[in-house]
Structure formats: structure tokens, C-alpha cells
Amino acid sequence: MFAKIGEAVRLNRRALLKQDTVIDNNCMALTPTPAIGDPRFLLKFMQTVDLSPFAVAMTVPSVRRGDVEGITMALPPLPEQRRIVAKLDQLSARSAAARDHLARTIKLATRAKQAILAAAFRGDLLGLGTAETVKINARCWDLPEGWRWRHFEEVATIRSNLCQPSEMPDLPHVAPDNIEAGTGRLLPYNTISEDGVKSGKHKFFAGQILYSKIRPYLRKAVIVDFDGACSADMYPVDCSPEIDIRLLHRWLISEDFAWFTAEHEGRTVLPKINQRSLNGAPIPVPPSEQQVEIVRRIEAAFARIELLTEEATRAAHLLNRLDERLLAKAFGGELVPQDPNDEPAEALLARIRQTRTTAPNPKRRRPKKTAAG
Predict the structure, then answer these.
(1) What residues are paired with 228 via a beta bridge?
(2) Is the sign of the CA dihedral 179, 235, 283, 296 positive or negative?
(3) H helices within 253-287, ranges in order?
(4) Sheet holding 209-212, edge to edge
(5) pLDDT band with cut points at 50, 70 and 90 for residue 7
(6) What are the residues whose beta carbons fall under 8 Å from the beta carbon of 332, sequence distance 6 or more?
(7) What is the share, in percent, of the chain residues with pLDDT greater than 90?
């Protein structure tokens, strides 16, 4: 069975049904003939077929039955079909295990970053011990000697600079969706005019932090090096000389800060932190010289983790290409050895055709007439 309409056509969604199933009109079922000894062989062949060229209609692309029936395939002898399926299953299992390992590596990399941030804002990254600290929030913890808990408004200022789109049509437009959750990475964006913005937006300037007040648990914040305009659901933030902007940025995307903001989230459908609550949020502030070293160590550790993540992502992409290559080899006769003693597929097909020709046509039963008839 495979999906025959919409985005699923491009995504190659095919599956082997292992029990009687009811499917809707968005799917098409294929039944293998006796010429195919294992349904998995047909499934694996269909995984090599790109159905997108057959898709018709503009709104919801759909694949027609006639187009599928016209697809040709090279048919090996039944024993070779079984060898191909067995070999592909063996290699697919190894590929799946490798893919799972890479996925775990990427997930562990994300957790490692948060562990580094947690260590950074407790002094552990510098190997510092803690001392009894004045706490401005019940959730605060003891900090190293010389560190202080400060309120957000003591070290940063929220800048509201609401302007109309007509005043800045060519400026970059940054919305919460343009910031990757939990990483502080800026994603691709458009200009005000390209996005067709109608409502007022906050104008921001290079050297500020943009912090998304919508769903603060997503930890969306980014340092910008250009002037632009941001959604009214974001706060442009300036730092005081007391704190390094890079350190403040790392704090804003940390799970610890999200933990503090959770107690102030307003509304249940779309959580949001207001300006007053953000200004009252706590921040651990080390001495200036330690801030620089903490930032250096965070960035060095993150660079190593990101390199590992990139390599894992690249390896996963190569695995996908390897799977495609293995399927191509399998149906090109290059994956398993051929045995001259196998009955040729032509002979099998001829026998199937002969059987169909000589088989008696089943007689249709006429419905019994009722007494009324």
C-alpha cells in the first residue's frame, strides 16, 4: 500500500500490510502476483519508484491507477528475489541501528549544551565553590563568592520602539518563528514588505538581543548584528555595562531561566511573559573578568558539540543515500550473486499465463427469484 495524494507522494510513504485493512481513497493497494514470491520484494521495488512525476492536479497532487500499472520492473527468478529481500533486510537493519545511534548522539548533544549552561551559571564551569548568597527568588541557589543575584531590569533594558511598516518597508523582519528554539540561532527571514506586514512592529538595532515573550519555555532569543523590525511578540533588549551581552543571551536560552519564567507565564492556550514579569526575573551575575572567561568556555564547548552534531547529521544524510544506492543495486542485479540454476523469470511468467488461459471461467450464479418475482 502507498499514499497516492498530496505531500505523501513526495515523501515516499509506502508500507507492507500484515493484516486485513481498510484503506481510504487517499491510498492505493498493490497485490503481488505469483511471479513475486515475497510481498517485501514488491515493497522494496516500490521504494525505488519516484511517483512525483505521475502526480496530477495543482491543488492536491494525485497518482492515478493507470500510471502505476504502467510502471515496469526487472523481474528476477523467485530464489533471487528471496536473496535480494534477505540481503536488503540485513543491510537495512544495520542502517537503522546506525541511524538510531546518530539520532541519540544529536539528542545527547542538545542535553550536553544545557548541562554546560547549568554549570556555567553555578560557577562549576570555572571550578568555583559556592557561598551563602542573598536570594531574590525562592528558586534561586547559592552562588560563588563575589557573584550576585540581580533582577533582569537591573542589568538590561527592554526597548519598545513601535513603528508602522510603511516607515521601514525594506528592513529585515524577525518574528519568533525566525529563531530556533533553545539554540539562539537566527533562521532565514524576509523584509517587512516581503512578509506583507500590516501591523506595527518594534524597530531594533544591531547589538541588541531579541527575546520572544511568546511561549517562553521554547527559549527563543538571538543577538542581532543588523537593524530591523521585530514582531510585537518580541522584546528588543539592551544590556548594561554590568553584564556581557553574550552571557545574558546564554542565560535567556537556558532551561534554568525558562524555569524562572514558567511561574509568570500568562494565559494557558498561548503562554506569554509580560514586561513586568520579565523585568523581575532573576539573573546570576559574576564579576566582569569571570564573565569573559565563562563566555569563552561556553562558546568553546558549544563549538565542539556543534561540530559533533554536524558530523552526525551529515552521516545520517549519507545513510539515506546509502539506502537509496543499495536499492538501486538490488534492482540492477548487482547486490546478490545470480545462480544459473534458478528457473528464469520468463519461464515462470509463461507458466502463469498458461495456467490463466486453461483455467475454466467461473460461472456466475444467477440470483434466486423471490416469490414476488
Answers:
(1) 204
(2) positive
(3) 255-262, 275-280
(4) 156-158, 234-239, 209-212, 221-223
(5) very low
(6) 74
(7) 64
Cell of 31: 497485490
pLDDT tens profile 338-353: 888 888 888 888 888 8
pTM: 0.74
pLDDT digits (tens, 9 = 90+) for 200-236: 999 999 999 999 999 999 999 999 999 999 999 999 9
Say how far apart CA 152 and CA 143 lie, in whole Å. Answer: 17
Shortest CA distance to 185 belongs to which of 279, 110, 238?
Answer: 110
Whats the size of the chain, residue-wise?
Answer: 373
Tell me the three state secondary structure of residue 183.
Answer: coil
* Residue in this structure with the C-alpha cell 493484516, named with its chain if needed: 19
Residue 229's closest CA among 183, 193, 275, 187? 193
Cell of 111: 542535553
3 state SS of 211: strand
Task: Answer whether 212's CB lies under 8 Å from 220's CB.
Answer: yes
